[in-house]
Each structure stands twice: as C-alpha cells, then as structure tokens.
Amino acid sequence: MQRMRLEGLTRAEAQARLLQYGENRLERKGRPPALRVFAGQFRDAMVLILLAATVVSALLGEISEAFTIAAIVLLNAFIGFLQELRTEKTLEALARLAAPAAHVRREGREEWIDAAQVVPDDLLLVEAGDRVAADGVILECAAFSCDEAMLTGESLPEPKHAATGEETQDAEAHAAMAFMGTNAVSGRALVRVTATGMATQMGAIAGMLGEISEEPTPLQQRLDQVGRTIGALCLGVCAAVALAGILRGEEPLAMLLTGISLAVAAVPEGLPAIVTVSLALAVRRILKQNALVKRLHAVETLGCTTVICSDKTGTLTENRMTVKVLFAAGRVIEAERIRDHADRESVRKLLLCAACCNDAKFVGRRTGLFSRRTPQVEGEPTEAALLRCAAEHGAAGEGFLRRAERPFDSARKRMSVVGEMPEGARLVFVKGAPELVLSLCTREEAAAGVRPLSRERRAALQRQSDAFAAEALRVLGFAYKPDDGRDPEEGLIFLGFAGLVDPPRKEAFAAITACRRAGIRPVMITGDHEITATAIAQQLGILHGEGRVLTGRELDAMSDEALEEAAGRAAVFARVTPGHKLRIVQALQARGEIVAMTGDGVNDAPALKQAHIGVAMGKTGTDVTREAAQIILLDDNFATLVAAVGEGRAVYRNIRRFLRYLLSCNTGEVLTMFIGMLLGMPAVLTPIQLLLVNLVTDGLPAIALGLEPSDRSEMLRPPRSPQESIFSGGLYGRIAFRGSLIALAALWIFTAALRGGGTLETARTAALVTLVLTQLFHALECRSETKSLFSINPFGNPWLLLACAGSAACVAAAVWLPLLQPLFGTQALSRGLLRSSVFVSALAPVCSAVVSAASGFLRPMRRPDASAQPLGE
User: Fold this and answer.
1) Kind plus residue range of the DSSP H or E element containing 308
2) Among 130, 311, 502, 600, which one carries the catalytic annotation?
3) Cα 833 → chain centroid
C-alpha cells in the first residue's frame, strides 16, 4: 500500500477521478454573453440620441431616413461588437497560456501537467518557488515552508512537517497540510492531494471575492479625457450650426438632425475601444516573439523603459553549464584531463561531493528507432553539469542515502546534506559560494592527506577562486567531513573548486547594443562573484567607460541616498540577494528611471512587483515570479525583452497615428458644416451623408493604422517620458491644419459644383466624395510623423490599403448604385466633377507636404536617431 501510494495514480485512475470531481479550477465569472456585449454598444449617449432622432423621424413620416439612420447605427454597433469580441478572445487565449502547471508523480514517473488536470490522490512534488496546485497532506518534506498570507493574513512563511497521522489539533493538522494557491518559500515536499477546485480552502472563500475589473490604463484615461474635452467643444459648435440654420429659416427638424449627426461624427467616442484593440493586437505580435504580456497596460509602459535590470544566467547567457576546470589538492585540472586524475583520492572525493550534494537526477527517456532508454539529467543547470561530470568519471554517488539536508537559498549561498554511503560511512557534503565554504573549513584535503587550513593557505585558495572567476567561470567550493553529530556546517574539510562556464548568448550582444542606441541602460544583477560578473559584462558590452561594479556587501553599507546616487553609474551588481534587488529597483525609481526587472526565483517577486515592468522567466521562472510579473519571456532570452520594448514603442506611435487621423477628420467635418453655415450656404451635407462619412472613414482605416508595423527608427529614439502628452511634438497643430485642409477641399468642390450649374444634390454628392477621399488620403499620410505621403512606401501597410479601398467602395456604392441613391440623397457624378473631386482631394497632402518642408527650413528638425549614440561613448 505504501509503495503504491508513493508511485502515484495510474493514468486510468487519474482520468476516472477527473470525470468524477471535475477540473481543478475555481468557479469564475465567465465572459458575458455575446448578446449583452452587442447591447453594450448602445449605451453611449450619442448613440442613444441618434436612436431618439430615428424615432422622431419615423413619427414625422420620414420612414426612409429613419430606416437609413437606424441601419448605420446598427452597422456601427456591429463593428464595435466584433472588435470587443476579438479582444476578449485574445485575452482569454493569453490567460490560457499563462495558466500554472503542476509537477506530479504518476505510475512512478514525474511529469508536468496543467494544474487544472490535478485530481484527488495525485502526488504533487512541490519545491521552493512553486505555487501549490491543490489542497493536500504532506507525506515527505525537507525544510519546507509556505507563504499562506492569502489564506491566513500572516506575513511570515508557515513551517511545515510531514503528517504522522496522529495530529489531534487544528494547528497540528494545518502544519501538515499544503493549500491551493499558496507559495512554497523554501525546501520541497511530496503532497498527496485531498481536495481540488471549489472543494479546497481557496474555493471556500472564492465566493467572497468580487470580480476584479482591470482599471483603465493611464493612456486610456488621458484619451478619454481628451475625447470628452473635444466632444464638449464639438457639441457647442454643432449646436451653433443647428441654431444658425434654424434662424436662417431652414427646416427645424432637418437642422436638428444635422446637428445631432454632426455631433456623432465629431465626438471621438470610439477612441478607448480602438486603444484596447491596438494594445491587444500588440500583445499578439509580442507573443509571436516569445514574450507573453499578461496585462495590456504593460505594453504602453514598455515604450517608456529607461533601464533594464537583467539577471545573468539564462537571460544574458545560454544557461548551458559545463564543468571546465577543477581545482583539487593544489592542482588545476582542465575538463579534458579530469579522467587522468579521477583515481586520485582528492579528485574522487570532490566529484563524489558534487554528485551527492545535488538535487539533479538521471531520468530515462526513450529515444531512437528501437526506443532505447537514454539516461538524461534533469535539474538546475549548474547541478546538472556537476552530476554529468561526476558520472562521466565514475563518481555519481550511487547508493548514497540522504538522511538530512539544508537546501540552498539565496541568503546562505550553500547547500549541505547528511547521508550514508553504501559501505556504511555517514558523511556530510557541502557545496556553495567559495568564500563561504572556505569560511566553514578548518582543514584541507591535500595530496598527502588531511591537513590544517592556515590563514595563508586560505588566502591562496581565495586567490585561485578569483582567478577562475576572472575567466568568466562560475566557481563553486566543496567540502565534507564525517558526521560527528554536531552542526553539519562546522569544522569542514575543504575539497576544492569547480569552475563552470555558461557562454553568453550570441544574440545578447546585439540586443544590448540596440538598448544603448535606444537610450536604455542595461544593468546586470547577479548572485555570481564580482569577478565573474565583470568578465561577462565586459564581453557583452554592459560594462565599459565609467561604469561601476557594486557588490552586495557594498550595498549593505550604503544608505538609501548613497545607493540612489551610485545606481546612476552602476552597470553591474554582483553577489546580491533578492532583498538587494528590491533596493536597487527602488533606488533607480527614485532617480526617475522607468525600470524593467527580470527574475526567476521566488524571492525575486517583490522586486518584480516593485518595478514598472516585472519580467519573469518562462522556462526557469517559478510560479510566484510568473504571477508577480507583467511579462513572461517564454525563451528566457534578453533579446526577446528588447524586441518587446520595440513593440511597446511602436504601439504608442500607432495610437498617435490613429488619434491624429480621427481628430483631423472630425475637425474637418465640423468645420465643413460650420463654415458653410457662416457663409450662408445650404447645409453642405445631410445628416445621412454625415453618418455615412463617419461610418466609412472612422472605423476600418483607424484600426488599420493601429496595425502599422514597427520600423527600425523606433529603437533609435530616446524613451518617451510617461508624463509626456499624447499631443506632444506639435500634434495639436497638425490636427488643426489638416482638418482645415479637409474642410476647405469639401467647401471648394461644393461651391464649384453649385456655380457650375449643378443641383444641390449633385453639389452635396461631390462634397461627400471629396470629404471621404481627402480623409482616406490623410489616413495614408498618417503612417509617418516625419515623412510626407510621397516618401512613404505605399505597400508598407497592406491592411490600411484594404481598409481605404473598402471605404472608397462603400461611398462609390452610395453614389452610383440607383438602389442607394434615394437613401443617401446622392446623384451619379459626371466625369469632370469626379476628376475635380479626386484632384482637390490629392491636392491636400501636397499642401501638407509643402508646409512641412517649409517649416523644416524655418526651424531645425531633430533627427529620429539623434539619440542613437551608445551611452558612455
């Protein structure tokens, strides 16, 4: 029974329990029904006013006009519905990708499964940094403790012990249990699941947790405020247009509808929705580059990043550790020569210590045509490299029975185990940071046997460790002693060092160069030795010039004010703890930096949460860091983060693009009607025509501008300030100027058509075509803030071309299809008038390009790559 229990469930048993108990999920409020999402499109005040106008028109007998207005409103609502539905599906897909996993033992084999597939009686293997997937009783554990603040409110971790079956009090039973959603802080445990889903302690309180809605991003709030301000101004102008028409003797109902339609066209009520869609699409693009963005607002913050604090191992390096050199009994032994010395007692003991004081293990995997079991090492890269090296030289520690252990943690920087060898000897093995291991030793394993460790010899050994570190090696110290029943980590016998190499990623150097050109300062934060970190930082180009290296010991001696000053020049922080990382982030933020911080360990979570952008590792990161982070690097690659920063900048630029486009078009429509009334003209456009313009020009082209691909110049500009106005760089002036050109073009054609003997319907049709074409030309123009329409690659954004073609086709149908002409009050245009409309529409971007060129002569323009010089050069 005991043996079966420790082997775990069979797959058939697990499947049967899954059917019986259901998935291991907490009940949560699902996505609102599609009908409710569609109905939500009609909550906007302007839409309600327009629907009211539809009812008034129908009551007055204007059935065709009422029907057309209602059809356009419904089409607008349908477009908004599709946008919102697609965004929701994107977010749901991302949530599934970010779902936690569980490490279980089934049929005697260990595997990772989706946490939702965990069932009662499953065996969970939980280690420091993991999130417990379900409630369960602890069968075995070593130095295991859990953060249960979310359940108990206690800030300190709760120590745990294995269940004995004799617990009689609630407190005793609680200490022998692990609970769903809590985080393992230290040690490891084997847990038998007793409850899943809503039957867990977390499920019991789930009903008391309200639905947490994501607050609007700062950018959305600013845009919403902009929309309201502009909307209020436009409403005033629209009311003035309607009043002026009524005072001139126009039909009150027609002018009322004109004013309402103009208000709907002028108020940019769709801005927040388009921002959300653009951010969601940017998230999908970033996901294709192996970075998972958990929260939409992280995308816009990425574009402001000024400092990226990155771990070294696995992020800047390949995390492919191999043993390069050993030092034992006073000899330096290169990796390829270890076999020649493996029979030496000092070398054998060092390799045995590396294998026994190690949590990596061999696992059999079937490979090849005949499915042969090939042993592979599974575990943390450094420990896996040590185990492979020991096994290759016949010192894998077979038969060693571990009786006690003190796991490695970032504060102690060492690991120790106590166990029995096959021949019965009981030994203590210790590995860890060289200086710490040396400080625990009183003797040394020499070629002639064990001898006392003098102060001079200790200093010489430390120099040897530093020499290895200067070669960019990760150095570990090893020690042992016979178990004497006293503190296992006192009175040790020093065995030697192992130097491991983790080569820098090939793409990391290019990514760091891109950072410096973009005005972003890369900073390395690592627990490795100062010398090792310095060597790697110099190879990658992080450390040069006046860059400074600080150690954890120096940080401990600094006040917060001193650290704030030093952080401005520091390029490398070595031998730091997770607590130091939090102080570093806070010091950089105090200097006004926008900080992105990477991490993988459980204790990195506070620093990740403190940073503006917390970045967790997808491969080596723990559940805790992945939950605290806003971005997860699926490939643990620094270059991926830099690429995501580029996408963050691009999405902000795209938001400016469609904001410029929408507001210019709305300004042009309002000015067209307002100036026409002031000049005593008839209403230039009817309400239906205004709504048609709003439909075909505001929707698809604006969204297509949000799909504009990022260009290389994005990473040649300095980071923008988060306080920077969305209208910075003269955007207000461009909007006003281009809106005026749109209005002048429409009024010019309207006047020319009337003077040429055309009817009012013909003049309005010509103005309608000109207004739409001018806006579509402007959409193409908005692709760049620094180039004119005639210097942009016309095929750079095929989606925008399709959107403009679709909008033009809609207007052409309204003008030339006899079925739609009565609805929109249009007439087919003659070839001469059509050519004039196209000519006047195309003239607007020419005027815009001429004015931009002239302004460039009058004032020096800053080049986009003005900040492209690498920092410190």
Assistant:
1) strand 307-310
2) 311
3) 52
What would the two tokens of residue 483 be?
Answer: 């178990």
Q: Give the range with max mean pLDDT: 19-33, 108-122, 160-174.
A: 108-122
Residue carrying the six token digits 């002028």: 266
Q: Which domains does the chain possess? A: 2-26+101-205 (2.70.150.10), 229-282+644-718+725-858 (1.20.1110.10), 291-318+504-636 (3.40.50.1000), 323-500 (3.40.1110.10)
Residue 690: CB partners within 8 Å, gap ≥ 6?
Answer: 258, 261, 262, 264, 265, 669, 673
Residue showing tokens 């940094």:
129
**Neighbour count for residue 370 (Cβ, 10 Å):** 6
Q: To the nearest 5 percent, what fractions of the chain are helix, strand and coil?
A: 50, 20, 30
**Confidence at residue 601, expressed as pLDDT on a 0 to 100 scale:** 66
- Give every CB contact of residue 778 below 8 A, 6+ residues apart in sequence: 661, 664, 665, 738, 742, 844, 845
The amino acid at residue 755 is R
Mean pLDDT of the chain: 81
Res 787: pLDDT: 79
> What SS3 state is found at 142?
strand
In this predicted structure, the answer to whether residue 799 has a pLDDT above a threshold of 60 is: yes
Q: Do 573 and 584 form a contact (C-beta atoms < 8 A)?
A: yes
Give 357's DSSP letter: S
Mean pLDDT of 103-124: 92
The string of pLDDT tens digits covering residues 839-869 is 999 988 888 878 777 765 544 444 333 333 3
For residue 356, pLDDT beyond 90: yes
| DSSP type of residue 290 | T
Phi, psi (degrees; rounded to nearest 5) at 130: -80, 155
Strand bridging mode 613-617 / 631-633: parallel
If you search the block for the tokens 């625990």, which residue do you land on? 440
Give 411-475 as a DSSP string: TT-EEEEEEE-TTS-EEEEEEE-HHHHHHTEEEEEETTEEEE--HHHHHHHHHHHHHHHHTTEEE
**Percent of the chain's residues with pLDDT above 70:** 80
State the burial class of residue 540 (Cβ atoms within 10 Å of its Cβ: 0-12, 13-18, 19+): buried
Instruction: For residue 375, give the 3-state DSSP assignment.
Output: strand
Question: What are the structure tokens assigned to 552, written together?
Answer: 């954890």
Q: How far is CA 528 from the centre of its chain?
A: 27
DSSP state of 131: B
Please, which residues bridge with residue 112 across strands?
Answer: 103
Which residues lie closer than 8 Å to 730 by C-beta, 6 or more apart?
A: none
Separation CA 292–CA 618 (nearest Å): 9
**H helix or E strand, kind and range, residue 814:** helix 798-816
Q: How far apart are CA 143 and CA 125, in angstroms?
A: 14
680 φ/ψ sector (left φ>0, alpha ψ -120 to 50, else beta): left
First and final CA of the chain: distance in angstroms? 69
pLDDT in tens, 309-322: 988 877 888 878 89
The yes-or-no verdict on residue 759 having pLDDT over 60 is yes
Identity at 243, one-letter amino acid code: L
Tokens representing 527 are: 């627990």
CA distance 41 to 273: 11
Distance separating alpha carbons of residues 126 and 544, to the nearest angstrom:
42
Q: Is 483 assigned a catalytic role? A: no
| 3-state class (DSSP) for residue 251 | coil
Helix axes 731-755, 638-678, angle to 10 degrees: 40
CA distance 556 to 579: 10
The whole-angstrom separation of Cα 66 and Cα 187 is: 71
